[in-house]
């Protein structure tokens, strides 16, 4: 059993099971695949600028949305000063100890940021447990990590944990819009070299990454989108060769790594944490179970009891949404193309229908298929007045929003992320987030979910940094299952959950190691 009390170093030493490298993205459980391939560098950057949801890493790319210029945190610092008008690169700033190796919007915001980090810590039990348990071992001692992620309260908890585990770090933002300035200030105040602010220019963006690389010799990369990896490979090829490992968070970055690997240009081992089981399950099922309600409530103030909802796609996301909608008394219909998922929906007590059969009567339409044109103009023409339409899938093509941009229809923005689309006869539908991921656009990301991701990232760094030579080749690996199990075990004490231990006899009977892993790699949770 992977007990939360097992010393971390032991856990790592005991971890002799390495998942085989996955060199073909098609062979991994690529939940966000859906044909979303990586464009050229310039394409991708402009994509980031126009619709930052597209750069969602799960999360954690998932962590920001098209509304990344809005603050997701109610506790977010909202004050400003004339100091904020001066471009950060033109300012000379120092923290209260005189440390000045950073570039943030305004160091004076640090107290607000610290408060937010402390709030996040309370809801991130796994990463805090890891910090406490491995704090003495210092499994990242001598690691020099260059990090490129969103910079918000939750990622700050992870960054500070990496330091507590012994690493030296330098950090830049992976998105020009998503940095919480007060959080960056709080990190700088504790002497952490951080180069990030909200509203960076394209040039600032690369300057910040370069500041994390050019003045020292990193030996690990923690990336969310692949930009730090790309920069080092392009600008510092010799230095790149001496990197011990890359940990990549996002779907986009993972695709880039696979491409590098296929082209024979990946000279270091990399860990794909995007597809780790625990993280995937939390992002798809559990997070969506919570956030569908949150985002619908925040944007429409809708009452759910007795409402008729059609959910397109009964996969992980669809199942999560249905669980909570059912709990609130909705009458739920499912559309599916896959007989297995359709049968699951029947077993769960839902009616499986074709969209046309219910489209005239339903109150809410939610898509979660990962497919395109699931809800068409023809469907929307038939919807009743006031029907709410939204998408939980990765791509904004599930609802054919473009078909609504015709002269006969009037668009009325009623609040942020909410549009009324009005037909000539006065009928209106309520379109949320213009068809982009509604939960990432209209609600916040639960810290608990980020705790899971942060743990997988930290453990992947520890694993790659401490792995004996030869364990990992220059390829892309999935997180070893045992590590995935360990991430879950770190979160169990929060619930006072007590795991059953296998007896020797049972372990022998099952052919298992008592310390795990407990399932084969093909097991579907
Ligand atoms: N909103 C979020 O926070 C969030 C989190 C995780 C994943 N996602 C995204 O949500 C989407 C679904 O993810 P998932 O893990 O549930 O995938 P999944 O593959 O488990 O489920 C999708 C389901 O949709 C069905 N489907 C496909 N085309 C359909 C159609 N035309 N009509 C009806 N059903 C159809 C499939 O058979 C499948 O069962 C993906 O795009 C994923 O990237 C969103």
Write up what this structure looks like.
It is a single chain. Helix 13 (339-347) links the parallel strand 8 and strand 9. An eight-stranded mixed beta sheet has the order 9-8-7-10-11-14-13-12, covered by helices on one side. It is globular, with a radius of gyration of 23 Å. The protein has helices at 8-14, 41-50, 110-122, 125-134, 153-164, 181-189, 202-213, 227-235, 237-241, 251-262, 277-300, 316-327, 339-347, 355-358, 377-382, 438-442, 447-466, 481-491, 504-510, and strands at residues 144-149, 168-173, 194-195, 220-223, 245-248, 270-272, 308-312, 331-335, 351-352, 364-367, 388-391, 410-415, 418-422, 428-432, 476-478. Helices cover 38% and strands 12% of the residues. The protein is an alpha/beta fold and 525 residues long. The two termini are 18 Å apart. The longest helix has 24 residues, at 277-300. Nicotinamide-adenine-dinucleotide binds at residues 31-32, 34, 62, 283-284, 287-288, 312-318, 335-338, 341, 368-371, 374, 392-394, 437, 439-440.
Head-to-tail CA distance between termini: 18 Å
Envelope shape:
globular
Write out the distinct hetero groups bound to the structure. nicotinamide-adenine-dinucleotide
Q: Major sheet: order of its strands?
A: 9-8-7-10-11-14-13-12
What low-confidence regions span 5 or more consecutive residues with pLDDT below 50? 1-7, 11-79
Q: Could you say which structural class the secondary elements and strand pairing correspond to?
A: alpha/beta
| Beta fraction | 5-15%
Count the beta strands: 15
Mean pLDDT: 86
Report the sheet with the most strands, covering strand number, pairing sense and barrel closure: 8 strands, mixed
Number of separate helices = 19
Q: For the CA atoms, what is the radius of gyration?
A: 23 Å
Helix content: 25-40%
